[in-house]
Amino acid sequence: MANPLCIQLINPNTSLAMTEVMAQTARSVAARDTQILAVCPEEGAPSIEGHFDEAIATLGVLQQIKAGRDAGVDGHIIACFGDPGLLAARELARAPVVGIAEAAMHLATLLATRFSIVTTLPRTLTIARHLLHQYGFERHCAALHAIDLPVLSLEDGSGLAQQKVREQCIAAKKSDGSGAIVLGCGGMADLAQELTLELNIPVIDGVSAAVKMIESLAALRLTTSKHGDLDYPLEKPLSGRFAGLNLREHYV
User: Fold this and answer.
1) Which one, of 100, 147, 102, 103, lies nearest residue 124 by Cα?
2) C-alpha span between 241 and 233 (Å, rounded)
3) How far apart are CA 72 and CA 77, in angstroms?
């Protein structure tokens, strides 16, 4: 009998509460034998809401990728909608690495010809547009919407952020002509199934999408190509706080 899969879920911010929300969602959709190892960095930004935050978060992501690699996990999820450090992580990892924005956008194109994105702060809309262009989905996205509340409002217990997500999703369905909606924050992961039932269109959370994609890749025995730019990083002596990322023993 094959060993159960272990998928490392990396929350790039330092919020333990948000890590747990995403972990619960991941476990709810994972196959019975799939294990979800949910982690976040001990230092860094408490939320990721801009280019600066993403730059800080990238080191923590790579440290967690290295730890997951050393532990022998079967896949890694970068659970922030900006997909910070995704390509660098794919260089470092042996197992597949999936970002939740890329996963959600891919899945949306399988379910509808056009999708909308609902995210948190307006300033992050530009990051989402950059990702749409990078991933080749800009023609599939009808519109982007922001609830104009910070990421951490999703865990303040008031329910205001969740209500605004709901309102924006309803408005997007009415105004955009989209057949699906992508939730543009990992902290919204637990809202997707309820909104799908209420709106009667697919509302896609990238955490769930990424879990099922990694399970599919594992079933097909596929992982990131190491031919070309995603080959392991060139061997060189990293120093200081980066020394722990050295992979010298693995270059063969």
Assistant:
1) 147
2) 17
3) 14
- Residue range 180-199: mean pLDDT, rounded: 97
pLDDT over 70, % of the chain: 97
Q: pLDDT band at residue 118, thresholds of 50, 70 and 90?
A: very high
What angle in degrees, to the nearest 10, is found between the helix axes of 100-111 and 206-219?
Answer: 90
Strand partners, 36: 7
Can you give the length of the chain in residues? 252
Q: What is the pLDDT of residue 249?
A: 53
CA distance 125 to 144: 7
Residue 102 CA: distances (Å) to CA of 76, 133, 181, 195, 200: 13, 11, 14, 21, 23
pLDDT exceeds cutoff 60 at 123: yes
Strand extents, DSSP E, 2-114: 6-10, 35-39, 75-78, 97-99
